[in-house]
Amino acid sequence: MIEVLTDSPNISFTERAHLGQGPVPTAPYWSQSHFELERDQVFKRAWLCLGRVEQLPQPGSFFVQEIEVAKVSALITRDKSDQIRAFHNVCSHRNRKLVMEERGEATTFVCAYHNWSYRNDGSLLGVPDRRNFFDLDLKDCGLTPIACETWEGWIFINLQREPEVTLDEFLGAAKDDLAGIPFMHTNSFVEYEAVVDANWKVIADAFAETYHIPALHAKSLGPTFSSKANPFSRPLDARTWGPHRGMSCYGNPDYQIPDNAAVERLAYSSAKTGNTLSADDLDATSDLRNHPAINPTGADTWAVDLVWLLPHFHFHVSPGGFWTHHFWPISVNQTRWVARFYVPEPTTIRQRFQQEQFISRLTDILLEDVGNSITMQQGLDSGAKDVMYLQDGEVLIRHSIHHLQKWIEAASVRDALA
Ligand SMILES: [Fe+2]
Questions:
Q1: Distance between CA atoms of residues 179 and 215, nearest Å
Q2: Is 409:401 a contact under the CB 8 Å cutoff?
Q3: DSSP 352
Q4: Residue among 371, 271, 256, 368 nearest 321 (CA)
Q5: Does residue 29 contact residue 335 with C-beta atoms inside 8 Å?
Q6: According to the model, what pLDDT value does residue 10 have?
Q7: pLDDT at 354
Q8: Separation of CA 361 and ligand 1 centre (Å)
Q9: Which one of 50, 117, 153, 272 is separated from 375 by 20 to 30 angstroms, measured CA to CA?
Q10: Separation of 222 CA from ligand 1 center, angstroms?
Q11: Distance between CA atoms of 123 and 139, rounded to whole angstroms?
């Protein structure tokens, strides 16, 4: 059951999420021991979203996902029976890392060290000079599987040898409320990837509230996400599903392209994309926009919804499309951030031009966020402060901190989800 947090305008989102209102500790953002607890209790126990099934377009497709926090390299394949599978990317012979390419097409994988070979269903195919081994049973020497399930076209893995809960149980109420969202143009995305000197939560938090937009993005995004009526970009709505969470963000309905923004005017004046975080035409996105889980209050000042699945995955939906963020921890103060903006294949020159403008504008905005994350980490690492203060519009950050702590303390995943 979706827990909408806006039934009464007099009660804050934070209260409705049953969260405290006091300052929160900063240690989760700089403490090495806390990072290790997150690694063991969260990242090694939660279902982790990797991306879309369309990244494996046909039998024989594969990609490799490095999960530095757990020192795991995961090989994800689509085998000849069309099943998506995940394995530890490690040769059974002497345990060398097996596949070095990031992605590609291959029905077999050959270890470069001694040419042991594997099928893409994980079974061992061949061992050179096999007779010189001792009672080698090929059946015992396949790739080590990793639990892998899909939901609504999203691929998830679980690093527990035997996951304590299924993906369905992990997603809980979010599974049904978010079912059927018609994610569009899933074959084509613009990808940004960077290793950022900041704790993974610093970057995840940066894309989970709009309070910063009128300040940090004053010259870029500010005028489209705030107005005289809502100068601090207060959210329209927030909701939680167990350890997962979502928010609907405000957009300025009266935004006008400034007279001196000649390129933006050229790109958007004849486009109906809803707002400048959109790459597609409004006519094409009605099914997406009308899904009951998207902008659930039906606000006509709606700019974007974000959904944050514990621990490290966001998807965002705007009137003109969707995008995702993965925040992969590397160390306590380093993160590999991957953002994918799904865009239609342009069919007209105008659409192509509009997308170029969209991408260049986006790059400016993302640089503001990522650059700020580095500055955030410097302040946190200084040790000057034991706590930080969160306002109601930052409820998703508070919810994230709360549930990560719950997972850290929980003896079992079922306890963490209870
Ligand atoms: Fe931002």
A1: 35
A2: no
A3: H
A4: 271
A5: no
A6: 73
A7: 83
A8: 13
A9: 50
A10: 10
A11: 7
Token pair listed for 291: 């899904």
Cα-to-centroid distance, 93 and ligand 1 (Å): 47
Q: Which stretch of DSSP H or E encloses residue 157?
A: strand 154-158
At 5 the pLDDT is 53
Cα 195 to averaged position of ligand 1 atoms, centre (Å): 17
Interatomic CA distance for residues 290 and 71, integer angstroms = 41
Q: Which two tokens stand for residue 394?
A: 């930052």
Task: Report residues of the chain scoring pLDDT below 50.
Answer: 1-2, 7
Question: For 385, what's the count of Cα atoms within 13 Å in the CB-facing half-sphere?
Answer: 14
The pLDDT assigned to 9 comes to: 59
Cα 138 to ligand 1 centre (Å): 52
Q: What is the Å distance from ligand 1's center to 213 Cα?
A: 6
Q: How far apart are the CA of 276 and the centre of ligand 1, in A? A: 14
Single-letter amino acid, residue 297: T
This prediction has a pTM of: 0.94
375 vs 122: CA distance, rounded Å: 44
- Taking the C-alpha atoms of residue 338 and residue 191, their distance in angstroms, rounded to an integer, is 7
Per-residue pLDDT at 350: 83
Ramachandran class of 76: left when φ > 0, alpha when ψ lies in -120 to 50, beta otherwise: beta
DSSP-based three-state secondary structure for 147: strand
Q: According to the model, what pLDDT value does residue 355 have?
A: 84
Grouping H, G, I as helix, E, B as strand and the rest as coil, residue 146 is strand
Q: How many angstroms is it from 209 CA to the middle of ligand 1?
A: 8
State the distance from the centre of ligand 1 to the C-alpha of 105, rounded, in angstroms: 36
> Which residue in 190, 185, 252 sits closest to 221, CA to CA?
252
- Distance CA(121)–CA(81), nearest Å, equals 9
Written as one letter, the residue type at 133 is F
β-sheet bridge partners, residue 24: 388
What is the Å distance from ligand 1's center to 127 Cα? Answer: 52
